[in-house]
Amino acid sequence: MSGPVRSALRAVMVAGLRAYLGFALRTTRWTIALSPRSQDWLTGQEGRVAVVAFWHEMLPLSPALWWWAEPHNPALRLRVLISRNQDGRLIADVVAPWRIWSIAGSSDARGKNKGGANALRQMRRSLRHGCLVAITPDGPNGPRRKVQQGVLALARLADAPVVPIGAVCRGITLKTWDRMTLPLPFGRGVLTSADPLFLEALSDQADPALVLEQALNQAMERAASHRNAPSDHDASFKTLAPLDLTPSRAWSVAGTLLTPFLPLFLRWRLARGKELPERVREKMGYASRSRPDGALVWFHAASVGEVISLLPLVQKCLVLRSDLHVLLTTGTVTAAQTVAQRLPDARVIHQFMPLDVPRWGRRFLRHWRPQAAVFTESELWPTMIGLCHARSIPVALVNGRMSDRSFKRWQRMPVVARAMLERFAWVCPRSPEDAERLSALGAATTLPVGDLKRAAAPLPVDEAELARLQACLAGRPVWLAASTHMGEEVAIIDVARTLSHEMPDLLTIIVPRHPERGADVAALAGGAPRRQLGQIPQKRDHVWVADTLGELGLFFRLATCVFMGNSLPGCKGGGHNPYEPARLGCAVATGPLTGNFTEAYEHFGAAITTVADERALAAWVRRVVSNPAVRENLGDAARAVALADQSLVDRLAERILALSWSC
């Protein structure tokens, strides 16, 4: 029989077995009679991990236990030891779509290496990093109901308890060495457990293998007695089924229906310069790079600000684990350029994030196969998060942000929000307000608050270019309007004109948030010189438009004081990150519209000045430029706040690597 034919027949067999087993287990009415002491261990509450043990004969019934446990903790992950022989691999493929992931191996015997030692290491590592591990102590070849030493060795190495499980249901007893039970549809079943068994608590005289055998047999006997006891009206009857892995079925269906039209949308963006022609297919999940061998962690940041906050975290992970590669995805071209400029590491691969539709997301994950995924701030994509969950890829959220407006929007979709957020292994909120909102929407594991923008390194600079520009400006006083937006630039230019009458040498540098708007801003300023064209301001020029990307570190160092844009009345508002200029000791001001960075500006307090309008902005620039002592005091105060917490990166990097090790 040829290879393709054999593969096709095997695929048909796997699909058929899965369909039958799923139907039989779903239509069985289950009584859950678990020991109260074991329930928190079986659902991984508060980080508990355990070795779940059951006899080999109930292997076809074990998915029902997982279907009960997973809804109690959707971030829970399970690894099951399954033999690496042909039958074992068949079983592994049957249950994999239910997020029951296998570790291949069994005890070495008769001088043959069956992968036992490697499997033991994998199971120990999985337990240490938050996974449940299930094992059949008498498998894969018996003798029946006799505990082998592997499960005991694993429990000792991982310092984890063993939870004995029993299960019975209406079924056929097969004529195999273990008398395996094949469930029949529309029957009655019982799941039971004994109390967790802590090996270190056993007396020196007790034989751990015998104690575990007795506990497993008692669990099986208890299950059999419960199956015969309850009446048809017993309230404990439950119908169990796999957890729905899609946070929003409607979102997924809408994405599927829109998929044929989305290439037209990407073409429209391409025509407007918002996509790169040679890389636009990455938005459809097609990779433009090959996947490197070994461990790979995926980080996603939407735009430039999120990329900058992620940089120290990515760099720390690479330092801590020398064999690690990082996939860093962004949504915008400017963010991609920032990655290329700020993170030129051969172990970092940049790709564009595919649009959030099932087909493209599956294509993306099938190629890259990350060990863990880390999303940033408010990047919450239901389809991609669900696809990661289906593949048992742990997902974390750093700098988690939930604005009041976003919170109200997600409150209108509470089921989707909860189904999405509870799938995160953990969430690290940016502020106490964000923590409260994320928890209210369904985030199950929330870490202490931490803002990565506080922990970033100072922006880099080309020292030679800095010296050249300082010489060209010949000591002129300089103030900088950074990351400005449409609607406030007219006011900033009016401030520049007003102050130029009082201080003829004063130079105003405007850095538009979107460099492609440089020509428009220059036109508003009466044809001001532009950095993108290589133009240097002359003595008669009072405004210079710095419409390049990735040079804020240069301009912050040139400036006497810095105003952070997207914050004056007249623009959309929201503010921008004040940590970057503060970290360099700049005197910093902002307008009143800072809703996207409320906690950050509250953290700085009086170290950053808030100006109500253009008149107040002009007065602040006048005072700071003309008074070096004021400028120095404000800059020192801002720097002290910005550098106060540098330990967050280390803590998060260790947690992220722990997620990647567990897979």
Describe the structure.
With 663 residues, this protein is of the alpha/beta class. The chain folds into three domains: 8-107 and 114-234, Glycerol-3-phosphate (1)-acyltransferase (3-Layer(aba) Sandwich); 273-455 and 649-661, 3-Deoxy-D-manno-octulosonic-acid transferase, N-terminal domain (Rossmann fold), CATH 3.40.50.11720; 463-642, Rossmann fold. 42% of the residues lie in helices and 15% in strands. It is built from 25 helices and 22 strands. The strands form four sheets. It has an eight-stranded mixed sheet, sandwiched between helices. The chain has a six-stranded parallel sheet with strand order 13-12-11-14-15-16, with helices on both faces. It is elongated, with a radius of gyration of 30 Å.
The CATH class of the largest domain turns out to be Alpha Beta
Whole-number count of domains? 3
User: How much helix is in the residues?
Assistant: 40-55%
The quaternary state of the protein chains shown equals single chain
The largest pleated sheet is described as: 8 strands, mixed
Measured by DSSP, the beta-strand proportion falls in 15-25%
Per DSSP E runs of 2 or more residues, the count of β-strands stands at 22
Overall pLDDT score: 90
Distance between the termini: 35 Å
The CATH homology group name of the largest domain = Glycerol-3-phosphate (1)-acyltransferase
* Spatial order of the strands forming the largest sheet: 4-3-5-2-6-9-1-10
Class based on secondary structure composition and strand pairing: alpha/beta
Low-confidence stretches: none
- Rounded to an integer in angstroms, the radius of gyration calculated over CA atoms is 30 Å
CATH architecture term of the largest domain: 3-Layer(aba) Sandwich
